[in-house]
Amino acid sequence: MAAPNSALDAPSAQLHLEQRAATVRALASRRPVLHHLNADTSWLLQIPRPASAVKRGARIYYNVLIDPWLRGGQSDVARWFSQQWHATESAVGTIAEVDALAGEMEVLAGGRRRGGEEGERTLIDAVAVSHEFTDHCHRETLEEVHGDVPVFATEQAAKLISSWNHFRTVIPTPTFSAQNPDWRSYSLPPLPSWLSISRVTAPSDALYYHSALLITFAPHASPAPTKKRASLSIFGEDDSPFDSDPPNASSTPRTGSPSNPYPPSRKPIPRSRPSLSCTASTMCLFPRRSN
After folding, report:
1. Collapsing DSSP states into helix, strand and coil, what is residue 250?
2. How far is CA 280 from CA 29, 116, 212, 235, in A?
3. In this model, does residue 174 exceed pLDDT 80?
4. Which of 53, 91, 102, 127 could bridge 151 with an S-S bond, Cβ 3.0-4.6 Å?
5. Where does the record place the region Disordered (predicted)?
6. How confident is the model at residue 209 (pLDDT cuts 50, 70, 90)?
7. pLDDT at position 117, please?
């Protein structure tokens, strides 16, 4: 949200300032910020870092880019079989613009000076990919992301992304299950210990086309997790443990997944330990047109 343009008329400038002030007040709550980057499946999730991490000079938000497809076409199997484009242009067209968006939100939240920190390569801390189909796993967009950013992807998507030899770290997302309900055990390096990325699946969905990403984080300091971790993030992330306040979870299901409160794929979530507080459950409902 840039400063008001001098060419704006007085009412427009006033509205801009009021919107900016409202945004600053909202960000002061230190709640997660979820940006829908297009009328499809691409999201930027900004997770507030625990106070102990911010005190050490880190940014206020940990930024997870989800299923980025920002421009260009996508095809599955072959172009003659299925070729699609965005019916509506994305709000951001490049990864550089996503970085700029994250930076502007950081400035508004009071955690970063305009222009960024010296030597900072990108503000994207991790990428999460929920499916191997190219509207979720879009090579041209993903290869704009810095190669040092870790990618967490479903098994088939991870194999595909690894074959490009662009990213240094590609990790298959583990499946969250009732047999292992401690969400902290799904926090795989180089994620900080207060954050995990996993997936929830339905036994009846053999191909897992309607599985969901589960992004879970703890907002405050707490007893140590059950498993000792051996490494830190390449971004120098604080790895201290966090407290007993309910962790937050954001679930991003694929288009067409069931909408009842706890369909089969979500049954393990209410059994999680420590218990989860659902912050955001988002479902992509925007139709796409074939050209």
Report:
1. strand
2. 15, 28, 13, 26
3. yes
4. 127
5. 222-291
6. low
7. 62
Residue 73: pLDDT band with limits 50, 70, 90? low
Task: Write down how long the chain is.
Answer: 291
CB 213 within 8 A of CB 197: yes
DSSP H helices, the chain, are 10-27, 51-55, 95-108, 139-142, 155-163
Sign, Cα dihedral of 222, 225, 230, 234? negative
pLDDT in tens, 248-275: 666 554 444 444 444 445 566 666 666 6
Mean pLDDT of 66-94: 70
Cis amide prior to 190 (ω within 30 degrees): yes
- Determine the Cα–Cα distance for residues 189 and 277; give it in Å rounded to an integer: 23
Please name the amino acid found at residue 19.
Answer: Q
Distances (CA, A) of 199 to 4, 90, 163, 172, 257: 41, 26, 22, 10, 14
